[in-house]
Design a protein that fits this description.
This protein is an alpha/beta fold and 140 residues long. The protein has two domains: 39 residues, no CATH class; 85 residues, Nucleotidyltransferase, domain 5 (2-Layer Sandwich). It has three helices and nine strands, in the order ββαββββαβαββ. A five-stranded mixed sheet has the order 6-5-4-7-8, with helices on one face. Strand 4 and strand 5 form a beta hairpin. It is elongated and about 95 Å long.
Length: 140
């Protein structure tokens, strides 16, 4: 608390209040930044999927998804995974082997890579493997 002396030699206290306006401004700016960046962070791995006529919607947050990028890099959900460590990772996750596991592969990935990951999943005990594609668009 600060004391001020006036000409009449009376001591008065100064009013000390916190100015809340800058705090509110900063909080609102941070809120807007988080609202804009949150959907971007949830998109996952960018994979150019092949097109098919029969497509089912997949919710990436609630499913086990294995992705193969254009660079032949392997991802489990959004985390990079070594091909040889995939069985151990699936065991740690304790996924239900009767539920489907989804395989997303870029359309430019070599077939050999897709088949080897598919085989690794089958050896690990997952027999309900579904391949994710995007809807077919007619070319005009």
């Amino acid at each position: 608390m600060a004391f001020n002396t006036t000409m009449s030699s009376k001591t008065t206290t100064s009013l000390s209040e916190i100015n809340v306006t800058p705090l509110v401004d900063v909080v609102l700016v941070l809120l807007i930044i988080f609202m804009v960046t949150a959907p971007i962070l949830q998109t996952g791995i960018d994979v150019n999927l092949p097109e098919t006529r029969t497509v089912a919607e997949v919710d990436p947050t609630s499913r086990a998804i294995i992705s193969i990028s254009n660079d032949d890099l392997l991802y489990f959900r959004s985390d990079p995974v070594n091909y040889n460590e995939l069985p151990q990772l699936l065991e740690r996750e304790a996924l239900d082997k009767s539920k489907p596991i989804y395989l997303r592969a870029d359309r430019d990935v070599k077939w050999k890579t897709v088949v080897s990951v598919f085989d690794q999943l089958r050896v690990s005990g997952y027999h309900n493997i579904q391949v994710v594609t995007r809807p077919w668009k007619e070319k005009r």
